[in-house]
């Protein structure tokens, strides 16, 4: 089984396709999966080392978020966010630092770790920040694969956390999680089977998720009764 050339000059998409091809060639056996993960982490670490400014930015930002984090769960959330961000800095491609839009996206993704996360207005705040970081990236011409992936992950993390913690309706919880999970599972499954990242119509995939965000945010905003802090609605709803 040939090991693909993952030179630092290779684009993130090309490197990912090469790794997926290696995984497919190995017929997804445990040894092939282990090699895939090892090579992916190795490249991610080398890519982060090539962007010290971006790594310093994300470390400083997460350190500031770590201080006011809500207890041990909040600190674990921030630590996981830092690790994921650091390992995906290669998606910045030719850029060497995070843009203001990237910083805003990362703040949104860590909202559940702060006191604002469970708030009545948190859903509306996240939707507003989602619109703002997209406009900012386009205005400053800083649109990147990193920003797109961070945006999707930040949204999925926040809304999944919100519905599991605060949404009393099992139907809404199931519909929301399906809307956010289905596109990710579909794209991942196709990529693994084909051995390369598929070209899929992104707007068509995110439309159900965007609709569910509006529904969940509105229900959160209109809800007057809230469960005791730390106790999800799923544990109190009948």
List strands and helices in order, with pairings.
Layout: H1 12-25, H2 30-49, H3 52-66, H4 71-86, H5 100-109, H6 122-139, H7 145-166, H8 170-194, H9 202-222
Helix pairs in contact: 1-2, 1-8, 3-4, 5-6, 5-7, 6-7, 6-9, 7-8, 8-9
How would you explain this protein's 3D organization?
The protein is globular and about 50 Å long. The protein is built from nine helices and no strands. It has two domains: 1-50, no CATH class; 53-235, no CATH class. Residues 227-238 have low confidence and may be disordered. The protein has helices at 12-25, 30-49, 52-66, 71-86, 100-109, 122-139, 145-166, 170-194, 202-222. By secondary structure, the protein is mainly alpha-helical.
Short description:
The chain has 238 residues and is an all-alpha fold. The protein is built from 9 helices and no strands.
Beta-strand level of the residues, as a percent range?
A: under 5%
Number of domains: 2
* Count of extended strands: 0
Q: Name the overall outline.
A: globular
Residue-averaged pLDDT, rounded? Answer: 84
Q: Uncertain segments of ≥5 residues (pLDDT<50)?
A: 227-238
H/E element order: HHHHHHHHH
What is the alpha-carbon Rg in Å? 19 Å
Task: Report the biggest beta sheet as strand number plus sense, adding barrel if it closes.
Answer: none
The count of helical stretches stands at 9
Distance between the termini: 55 Å
Q: Which percent bin holds the helix content?
A: 55-70%
Structural class based on helices, strands and sheet pairing: mainly alpha
